[in-house]
Amino acid sequence: MRHSPARIVSLPRAAASTAAVFAAALAATLAVAGPAAAAATITVVGEAKRTAPPDMAVLTTGVVSNAKTADDALAANSKAVSEVIAALKAAGIAPNDISTSSFSIQPQQSYPQPPSRETPKLIGFEVRNSVRITVRDLGKLGGLLDKVVQSGANQASGLSFALADTDRLEGEARAASVKDAIEQAKGVAAAAGLRLTRIMSIQPEGQSGGPIMPAPMMMKADSARMAVPVEAGEIEVRARTVLVYEAEPQ
């Protein structure tokens, strides 16, 4: 007896799409029935700070000079700044701790009062020269400030305190922030009835130091003036660490 040849049946596109959806749904069902869902994660942020007295200071000071001509203003300013630098070196500041931070020459003009329409008149020039000084012996800072003023400095833009080596302080703050994060994670896990299994990631964040202490405008000092009183305070370093734990039911 002869058998009729087999026939290949092609399903319509809509039927094929329905079959694909059914297969995907079946696969999802099997996945749910298979291994347990992924473990929970706990994310915490640990914070810590450490403080220490500063051991150095950075001062920016200089001279502002005015004259009718640029040459005269520049000459007067250069002479005054040279005297300031000489006083710094005589006070024991090393040459590599003295550097020019800014220099400018600006015309000075007189503006007529309204409703006058006269054009502004050039009345002179202003020269500014500032130096940045690193003071590594804070015991000399108060006396040094007074000497700088007496030598001719008549302006100051800032005084800040710092640590020559912050690595130790930053390391202590960072380690403390990690410990703080671990303790937080333990507390959260216990409250949720979970057990910490492993650390998935540790992300330390940058440290920050204490604020800059502004210095007031300096004026010409009297020769009998006492050393400028200065309080250095403390340098504060902060650290933050983001810790992600994997956890599972107890």
Count of strand segments: 7
Ranges with pLDDT <50 over ≥5 residues? 1-36, 211-224
Radius of gyration: 36 Å
- Global mean pLDDT: 81
- Which structural class fits the helix and strand makeup? alpha+beta
How many helices? The count is 4
Most strands sheet: 4 strands, antiparallel
Q: What proportion strand?
A: 35-45%
Spatial sequence of strands, sheet with the most strands:
3-4-2-5
Distance between the termini: 70 Å
Oligomer: single chain
As a percent range, the share of helical residues equals: 25-40%
Could you give the order of the helices and strands? HEEHEEHEHEE
Shape: elongated
Summary of the model, kept short:
The protein is built from four helices and seven strands; from the N terminus they run αββαββαβαββ. The protein is α+β, with helices and mostly antiparallel strands and 250 residues long.
Give your account of this protein's structure.
By secondary structure, the protein is α+β, with helices and mostly antiparallel strands. Helices cover 31% and strands 36% of the residues. It has helices at 13-33, 70-90, 141-150, 167-192, and strands at residues 40-52, 56-67, 98-110, 121-135, 155-162, 194-208, 235-249. The strands form two sheets. Strands 3-4-2-5 form a four-stranded antiparallel β-sheet.
List keywords for this structure.
250 residues; alpha+beta; 4-stranded antiparallel sheet; 3-stranded antiparallel sheet; 4 helices; disordered N terminus
Which secondary structure elements does this structure contain, and how are they paired or packed?
Layout: H1 13-33, E1 40-52, E2 56-67, H2 70-90, E3 98-110, E4 121-135, H3 141-150, E5 155-162, H4 167-192, E6 194-208, E7 235-249
Antiparallel strand pairs: 1-7, 2-4, 2-5, 3-4, 6-7
Helix pairs in contact: 2-3
